[in-house]
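User: Okay, second chain of the day. Same drill as before: sequence in, structure tokens out.
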Amino acid sequence: QVQLVESGGGVVHSGGSLRLACVPSENILSDHAVAWFRQVPGKEREGVSCLSSTDGSTYYSYSVKGRFTISRDIAKNTAYLEMNSLKPDDTATYYCAARLGRCANVGGVPFSGAYDIWGQGTQVTVSS
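Assistant: Same drill. Structure tokens below.
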């Protein structure tokens, strides 16, 4: 069973930056799409971004487009989510997820039900 481990969360002031990392327990990034989701207590998990393994296509939710960047380093077996210009509304637990092949989106953002490998999450808190 492949596991994903996220890191890089923390507390940052509004306007600040963080880079989240996601490391799979096996080398899957060359043939698995990797996505980031976030969740606030009491709300549904929200798709944030995805990177397809097949052609490198990237997808972003409207709320983060232009501020967040998803990437991967296959040699380091690590996926990243670079988050800039952070806002208090970005406060959430961020999860890394993966699925074989392409991103699976609904409305242009990753759909959580289509991803079968998940990490435990890392907390991001943005103070105003």
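The CA atoms of residues 48 and 61 lie 5 Å apart.

User: Thanks, on to the next one.
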